[in-house]
Write a structure and sequence with these properties.
This protein has about 575 residues and is an alpha/beta fold. It contains 20 helices and 10 strands. The N terminus is likely disordered. The structure holds adenosine-5'-triphosphate. The site of adenosine-5'-triphosphate has 13 residues, from α5 and α12.
């Protein structure tokens, strides 16, 4: 876990603090070299005014060149260091975040919108770039350069120094009064709105196909456009005061305005003989640099607030609770699964209540029940996508929480309702769970999953990339996923309504594939199509988080309770009259 007891930016940027510190020190030295340039300017103007020897003037010009070269050269080195540090930090943070996502329980993903996660990994990490690569070094430059200039003005004449400070003081006072409110809080609110709009966009893109089918695409678009309009309204409301303050305040620190104040005070000094003309000239030049520096520092302040919010969100994701993991492998000889007095409570609501169940090794258990009965929750427990609130799930007599995840994934395979195939070849897709597999083994698994023929008929065969070279149907994707599990050869298989999205034509193929997959494996299958589980070793009926019935198809029909009712409903809807 990442400790969050420091400032969020310091915590996130800790691995690159040393190079950043070096960059800052180099930039400070670069800015101090400005003093050499200012002194050289005085010498040049005095030398010209007093008709000094050309050699003296050239010498001063030489120092001016040294000052300018030092400032720009060292400044470039500082920026290069900060850019390298930033590249390293971004790479490490993205790897850390990806690793973290890999360790989060499966349950976490169903509870967190992917739009928000994408924003953290992509945009929030990028938001740090401006700060780490630019703002720190450039901020130091823009603070130090006018400071060195102002100090130089004060050493020339305190009135000149003060004259250059007046417009700056006025600017900050105006900005503070008009911007009402702290930029940090505003950036936090903007970031919240951004995360929300990101989620809406992802939902819209995901849902638009379904809405279109029902002729409701317009409705989806309306929700999306309402959300973007609302975002625009909230965003303007939040940033308007700051923008107004910025534009009014900017008017009082234009370079001519600042220089004018210095010239007026300087001329009074020249008249009294307290200020020399070269000193006034240099003070004017310094004064004209100040507005740009102040603007940059103000903008850097706003970007800093955005980076703090981004850092907070990155840390928040890195600190999401993981399931406790054991590292000590356990000796598991049987694939029997037992649940002892298992309950799961979601935010005060009981989804499973005191479940006691045994899945004998190599048996097929079907889980049925009305919607919301707790079937998915129970299946998630067996794949340890979440933990029980109380009670114990054991595999081969070992508490599932004591089995290291790496070992658990060698024992348990999951067939999802709508599996996804990554954009790698079909051969690689099928061999995902196993290393160094010959094509013959991949083809055997595909044959058992009833998909070999279809793949061999493709122009690219097993090298075809799904989604790019070939568009597979839902049933075909399902069979590729089954081939993957057959090849992976896990002794336990969890299936979440594997046939629910399949049409009747493809169902026979899928059922054969599933029969081959589950043969002699301990299987738990959530099923809505009751005809696919008639031959299950046991059928468990869940109702309102509890086991209401348990037995074979025939036994449950004889009991004439919930299962018999579900079967009657199913038979009626499946018969031609019922259609
Ligand atoms: P279905 O057949 O409709 O998929 P199910 O039997 O699989 O339903 P579950 O998904 O396990 O049921 O849900 C059981 C109960 O727990 C439901 O009331 C559901 O609303 C609730 N639930 C599920 N997941 C969460 C969650 N992450 N947070 C809060 N409540 C949840």
């Amino acid at each position: 876990m990442v400790k969050f007891n420091n400032h969020p930016l310091l915590t996130v940027a800790r691995p690159v603090l040393l190079p950043l510190l070096v960059a800052i020190v180099i930039q400070i030295v670069a800015s101090l070299m400005g003093w050499i340039g200012y002194q050289a300017l005085i010498d040049i103007t005095q030398g010209l005014a007093q008709h000094r020897a050309a050699q003296q003037v050239y010498q001063a010009l030489g120092w001016l060149a040294v000052g300018l070269a030092g400032q720009s050269g060292l400044g470039a080195v500082a920026l290069a260091i900060s850019h390298f540090a930033d590249a390293r930090l971004q790479r490490d943070l993205r790897l850390q975040l990806a690793d973290k996502l890999g360790r989060l329980p499966g349950q976490w993903f169903s509870e967190h919108p992917s739009g928000h996660t994408r924003q953290v990994i992509q945009e929030d990490v990028e938001a740090l770039h401006q700060l780490v690569a630019h703002n720190l070094v450039e901020g130091v430059a823009f603070i130090m350069t006018p400071l060195v200039g102002l100090s130089f003005c004060f050493t020339l004449n305190w009135r000149l120094g003060l004259a250059a400070c007046v417009p700056l003081a006025l600017y900050f006072a105006l900005f503070a009064v008009l911007s009402r409110g702290n930029m940090g809080a505003i950036m936090q609110q903007i970031s919240r709105h951004l995360a929300a709009i990101s989620g809406v966009i992802v939902d819209y893109v995901r849902g638009v196909a379904v809405l279109k089918v029902f002729g409701r695409a317009g409705e989806g678009y309306r929700r999306f456009s309402d959300a973007t309009r609302q975002f625009h309204h909230d965003f303007s409301h939040l940033v308007r005061p700051a923008m107004r303050a910025q534009s009014v305040a900017v008017m009082v620190i234009t370079p001519p305005a600042v220089a004018l104040v210095v010239v007026i005070i300087g001329m009074a000094g020249i008249a009294q003989g307290t200020i020399s003309a070269p000193a006034l000239l240099v003070a004017c030049l310094v004064a004209m640099l100040l507005p740009a520096a102040v603007m940059t520092v103000t903008q850097a302040g706003q970007l800093h607030s955005a980076a703090v919010v981004a850092a907070r969100q990155i840390l928040d994701l890195l600190n999401q609770a993981e399931l406790p993991a054991s590292r000590q492998p356990v000796n598991i000889t049987a694939s029997e699964i037992t649940l002892c007095d298992v309950s799961v409570i979601y935010g005060g609501r009981r989804a499973l209540n005191g479940i006691n169940l045994r899945l004998p090794a190599g048996s097929f258990t079907a889980l049925v029940g009305p919607s919301g009965a707790g079937k998915t929750t129970l299946a998630r427990l067996l794949a340890r996508q979440m933990d029980t609130t109380c009670g114990q799930v054991c595999i081969g007599g070992h508490d599932i929480r004591h089995i290291p995840f790496r070992q658990l994934y060698q024992l348990v395979g999951v067939l999802e309702q709508t599996p996804r195939l990554p954009a790698i070849s079909l051969a690689q897709n099928i061999a995902l769970g196993k290393e160094n597999v010959p094509l013959s083994a991949i083809r055997n698994a595909a044959k058992a999953a009833q998909i070999d023929e279809r793949i061999m008929a493709l122009p690219g065969g097993y090298n075809a990339i799904p989604g790019i070279d070939v568009q597979l149907s839902g049933g075909e994707i399902q069979r590729v996923a089954i081939a993957r599990l057959i090849l992976a050869d896990r002794p336990i298989v969890i299936m979440d309504e594997a046939t629910s999205a399949i049409d009747a034509g493809a169902q026979a193929l899928i059922c054969q594939a599933i029969a081959n997959l589950t043969h002699q494996r301990t299987t738990l299958a959530i099923a809505h199509r009751l005809e696919t589980i008639q031959h299950a070793d046991q059928i468990v009926v869940l109702d309102n988080g509890q086991i209401s019935e348990q037995g074979s198809h025939e036994q449950l029909l004889q009991q004439q309770r919930l299962y018999a009712r579900l079967w009657r409903q199913f038979s009626a809807s499946a018969s031609p009259e019922g259609v």
